Amino acid sequence: RQQYDQFGTAGSQQHGGFDPRDFQNFDINDIFENVFQGFGFGGSRQIGGNRSGKDLVAKISVTLEEVSTGTTREIPAKRYVKCDECDGVGGEGVKTCSECSGSGMVRIQKKTPFGVFVTQTACRTCNGTGQTVEEICAKCGGDGRVLSKEPITIKIPPGVETGNRLRVEGEGEAGAFGSPSGDLYVIVEVEEHDTFVRDSSDLRITVPVSFVTACLGGEIEVPTLHGAKKLKIPAGAQNGAEEVLDGEGLPVLGSKRKGGLFVKISIEVPKKLSKKQKELLEEFEKEGKKKFGLF
Length: 295
Known about the structure:
The protein is mainly beta.
């Protein structure tokens, strides 16, 4: 988690957004331990007034080209955000709650046949915030937050892999009554590519090489994520041999290093030969046999 917390943010309009109601039964603890420590309020992190907003989860898909350079996404989102009318406090004339003296909690004593039991619960006067307002905000009704449909624009760092979880701090739901917002967790899936096979930060590709080039050596052009590049084929190259173009792979997440492009040679044998080509190949074979004393 520490690694992903360093890297910004992600999301996708074309791959779907999220509605906070979609995650009512989602337990974020399955992904990160101790994201919230609930007490008294569903999804709140601290006792009393700090009713932090819920963390949200979204999934995105990215291409290898986007993995190579990094990119941005817009996630269509329906979530609670801080009310701009009252700046999230719920109204005007904020003051310390006289009922709980600002703690957000009250103690209740109850007599039973077994003695006096003391329990602690959220203050109903201030809804556990420790503060009250003299005039309730008309826009949010005193909750300090309103429902928004504005999309979230986020950055995807280069080098992400399928299964990476990126944390976008403060982009979850706003907390009630001015409490901190939750976070957005973005789960990444990298799409398969038509040309390249990914191997961590390396890429792999198989390219055809003519029989003559394999024998004599030469240069060929191979595709990369950033356009065609020239690759030297050594004389006597064997079918299945690999050559590498350093730095033409993918970035390593959180690093300036890049992997390589591993090019596997597939020697093409011509299916049809002219009479002249057949004669030359037969002569070639005879010369080879003479060299090894087979004649």
